[in-house]
Amino acid sequence: MPKLTMDAEVNGRKVRREIQPYSRLLDFLRDNLNLTGTKEGCGAGECGTCSVFVNGKLVKSCLMPAAKAQGTRIETIEGLAGLGDLTPVQRAFHKTGASQCGYCIPGMVMAATAALRENPGADIEEIKERLGGNICRCTGYTKIFEAVEMAKAVIAGDAPETVLEEDKVGDSYIGANVRRLDAPSKVSGRLKYAADMKMHDMLQMQVLRSPLAHAKILSIDTSEAEAMEDVVCVITEEDVPGNDGFGVFVHDQPIMARGKVRHVGEAIAAVAAENVLTARKALSKIKVEYEALPGLYDPADAMKPGAPVIHDYAPDNLVKHIPVRKGNVEKGFAEADLILEDDFRTQQVEHAYLEPEAGIAYVDPDDVVVVISPSQNITHHRHMLAEIIAKPINKVRFIMSPVGGGFGGKEDMIYQGMLALCAMKTHRPVQLNFTREESLIASAKRHPARIHYKMGLTLNGRITAISFDMLSDGGAYGMSSEGVMRKAAILSCGPYEVKNLKVDTRAVYTNNTPSGAFRTFGAMQAQFATESMMDMAAEALGMDPFEIRRINMMKIGAKTHTQQTLETASLDRVLEAAETASRWEKGVPNVRGAERDDLNGPDTRQPCTLGARIKGSRNETHPYEKVA
Amino acid sequence: MSRMKRGRGMAASWYGIARTATIDRAGAWAELDDGGTGKVVTGVTEIGEGILTVLAQIAADEMGIKPEDVTIGDNDTARSPEAAHAGATRQTYMIGNSVALASREAFRVLGEEMAEHWDVDINDLRAFDGELWAEGTNHRMSMDDAVATCKARGIVPVGSASFTAHGTGLDPMDGSGNPWQAYVFGTQVAEVEVDTWTGEVQVLGIWAAHDVGRAINPRGVEGQIEGGVVQGLGQALMEEYITDKGHAITHGFAKYILPTSLDIPQINSIIIEDPDPKSPLRAKGIGEPSLVPTAPAIMNAIYDAIGVRIKTLPATPEKILKALRDHVPGHTQIARDNRSLRAKTARHGAVTV
To answer: What ipTM, to 2 d.p.?
Structure first.
């Protein structure tokens, strides 16, 4: 394909580069100019991490063909302030703690800058709307809003520049709001995440993934791919020199499918090539013969006799069952005046960290295999990889690159093994950057749960017994399922002292996308059910929700569900703090919203109506356009 | 009937700190370095939560220097001591305490030299913000000079430490055991508005009270609460990864809906500090616990507003509308009838409802 010559003014300097005709503006900035402050989060214009200015207008550079920016004036995060300097917006992000993982932050700073350039007097509602195209997964946006308002005041001269500076400390740094030390590198786009790193002579890797949920692999023919110009190596499970298998608790997952695929998106083979396009083309030349197997897509079906078996070692498809028993539940239910029984379900949830998985592997001069990736568990990954590639543990080195959001989703070693293998086969650095779509289908999710709940209570609100049964879809591999089931079981019945309980949590294998670690590790699924039941019980017994919880709460000396004696317990304090701060109006939770007097306080926001708040936009919004 | 209905709900929660049902450990090295700066090395740190800053604060406090003068070497299995993994609400508790102990050790090494140099009792030495002095004397020195003095005496002030949390495994039959040595508790209140024409729910306010032990960086704690609440809100109202026979239907952010700036309630964080008696820092944690009560608080608030109890997450507009349709007309009446039935049955002995 003939190349194009691209001329533009980038951050105040004229540049000319040869680009591919299919290059996006994002590729031009990142690959041709090495301006990696502009991030790729989704490649589809949905997340805003790639936001830049073109002729002064905020655009998502992943959606703009580079050739369309021919002759334009482009401004990126690197060009907002002078070298080593920060703009008031960037300094305000630093001050308020508006950057956490930092991956969305360059785009967010661009959007905030655009908002204040276009309307220096924008109120908070307009600011929120102008940031509406940029997703942040870490901060809950609140500190970002605070930062934009602070910057606005400083720019307008309504607040002195000193508000952007570090607060004074007293006689200790413990308890002080020290500004984040890593924020300047994040708000300026200087911090290099794994996908931003480049090494000399580096290859690009791509992964062939299964289109089938459950199938035998009859054969894999990589010969045509291997024969391609610029393809340097192709790997399959046959290339694994050691004991293949990883997982947080049970090592049931090979680094590439071994004789069988168990979920759509599972890695089958990987290609390392001189460039990503060649690697991608080579994937299409790999021929895989499958024999489809009956699939399991419902966790309840997985437990039925005669169900397809996903892993030979687990003929009943059970990943883990955790029982917790305390007291005598039959006796407890017999003592109850009221018994509530109900079912709850939670969904599979994606971590949606803005940084898709990425990594680099190389073999160093001392023959140490080095993997650089945003892994949340380099310690365990080093152990597992040493086994898989049959090397002494000190010949495997894991470096955790800056993590652009994890939330548990980067605890699984789903690609580092392939990178290491390619590096060992080629003795060149190898990089793999996931696309968003790839990240979605290949990475673990929050366990979806089905909970059957039975709670017995006396008329005065005391819980006499709980029976709690949770079934979770673990998906195709064990990953963190065992630990998630354990934590769910331990915390299941909530922060209440329950004398009699019977708790069972189970995770089963299916052919769905695997479930794994996700912030709360099973606790939110379990306690969603418990806290719903507590309110239902309060309604049935005519009690205030805080009251019924106080009657049952764990105090110092309480025996937990696993019969641990608590030496400290602060539920009384947090209940009181929340009740007081929210000006909670006591009453039975019996659909009394219409009669409440504690609504619409100064500590709530106003409901929003999209498109109503940007100056110059039409104010009359059709009632049906009101959105959440 | 008015279109917009408001309501409030609450939920409580608890959580364990650090790894579950097992012993947990983390190691760290520390050095009081030239120029009165500090160097800390440990196995795993930042995944966005702000732990780097927290560790710098801890090391600075222990070594008597400024957080910005602390350099942290980290995240490398071949160059730093093991600190296990970045998750399980364990960073402040495990790595924070190991950095505190290692820094304390480095300072003690320096202190022994300086006490001898000044001929004072080591227990009278104090240091803060780059200054070292001996209480009740005129001895005072910059940390820069103190490190030079220490080194001139032939000693490099270094320390190392390992911190342990003593969890135990669960009994395989009855699950009994001591899974954690530190627990935290939380309570959240949610205020919502439900559009009964479209089924859409807006969360207008969240009051989040969480015990975090000693808060090392309160602003960072708020950031964790706000982030957790919004992830909880996403799971409560919109997020759902859907597959059809194993194939993802929600294969991009156009299909997998995430909270944006327009979905964010005013989040009112209340930090409760119930100190941990078992660790030198007395801090606990907040990363995961902040997410736990959000979804049930929102579901309880939706019930308060419209009398519909959503038991299957997420409470999408479609689900709310269907639930309302199934109950219309007079859905609140149904809820009330149900309540009086329950109360009646309760009065007449145990009945399953």
So the answer is: 0.96
